[in-house]
Specification:
Layout: H1 2-15, H2 22-51, H3 55-81, E1 84-86, E2 95-103, E3 106-110, H4 118-129, E4 133-137, H5 143-156, E5 162-164, H6 169-176, E6 182-186, H7 189-201, E7 206-209, E8 215-218, H8 224-236, E9 248-252, H9 256-271, H10 287-298, E10 303-305, E11 308-309, E12 314-315, E13 318-320, E14 338-344, H11 347-355, E15 362-366, H12 370-379, E16 384-387, E17 408-409, H13 414-420, E18 422-430, H14 447-453
Parallel strand pairs: 3-4, 3-6, 4-5, 6-7, 8-9, 8-15, 9-14, 13-14, 15-16
Antiparallel strand pairs: 1-2, 2-18, 7-17, 10-13, 11-12
Helix pairs in contact: 2-3, 2-5, 3-4, 4-13, 8-9
GO molecular function, one term: aldehyde dehydrogenase (NAD+) activity
GO biological process, one term: aldehyde metabolic process
Family: Belongs to the aldehyde dehydrogenase family.
Length: about 450
Amino acid sequence: MEYHLAIEKQRAFFLTGATRPIGYRLRQLKLLKGAIQKYEAEILEALCTDLGKPAFEGYATEVGMVYEEIGHALRYLKKWARPKRVRAPLTQFPSSCRLYEEPKGIALIMSPWNYPFQLTAAPLVAAIAAGNCVVVKPSRYSEATSAVLEKMLAESFEAEYITIFQGGSAVNTELLREKFDHIFFTGSPAVGHVVMQAAARHLTPVTLELGGKSPCIVDETANIGLAARRIAWGKLINAGQTCVAPDYVAVHSKVKSHFEEAYKKAVLDLYGDAPLEQKDYGKIINRKHFDRLLGLLEQERSVWGGKSNADTLKIEPALLQEATWDSPAMQEEIFGPILPILTFDSFTGLFEELKQKPVPLAAYLFTKNPQHEEMFRHELRFGGGCINDTVVHLTNPRMPFGGAGQSGMGNYHGYYGFLTFSHQKSILKKSNVVDVPVRYAPYGDRLSTIKKLMR
């Protein structure tokens, strides 16, 4: 009942039209930015508490990215929301056609624990820019960050406009029983099924930002030292708990040994010979996931690294040097600092294997071969990715971020987030001066005429 009443209050507020004016939306975005600035130190401290994130990483991958989203929206919102004229068909002469972006209504944002601030606040920016009211449901696992979010949002916004609910799966279940106008969920494919099933009861549109086993391909032409460094960075930020982290590496057999040594060196350069004691290296979110990752390591034959500390929930970067498609670590998304290495001899053969796998959220290719680049761009399905780097494609607010197939549906960031939380209303305005009679019955011998007009 608590959730129902809160949503009804939001719906009543939305129906007043208060959120529609662009000036109102801009003021709320500025208010959100000011609130983040006020709570920035607490947010960074909470991220360290929940995930062991150093302040630099917390700012670079969470707070700073949200600032960029807000700044981008403040700069371009008036342009995004401007009615857009489109060409009218000849059959409707004389007329004009326009598209109007309007808010969907009440949006539910359900965010995960791995980037608990950024993956809550970035879609919130888009929902505000589009003129919606918002219900926020953060993860219970990232307890410290969720508490700061609750305090910040409650202090900054009226509950009839933006409200937040805390709790576990029971709260998720209760919220999903309610009718929303859009649901934005970031999390696992398993929970994504539950969200979509619940949304179907009300025919609610959904955006699902899920995950999957994102491949990283290193061919024989790659700059191995640079590739290893960039892969290690992308794999090990947030201790590997990143939905677009390279899940595994497929390396050409000619350079496999070279890559393994380069990766080990990159890990040592990043975190030294005692990563478990390194303050710049994060921890696993909780004991459940810590034990799951250790279980994967115990089933592998040849492992470099992988020591752990149960008290701090830290696991050293680990390299699985003899992984195969049938390895235990290759059966699920790893979501930790464990990197399996697979070997291939034929680039084309590898692609045929990858095409049979579920569509991943991201994919990466390291090469100097233009033909391999072309195959990567046009033959392999994935949400988004990089050539000769990892992860950083999602930092550009001018590009959409999202999955495909099992890795999700819909996208956001910048203008694409604005579109996600908007309905594009199409309106054709017809002239009252002229009324072309060709469409009206009786049709007589006008078939040839309509064929000429509708080509």
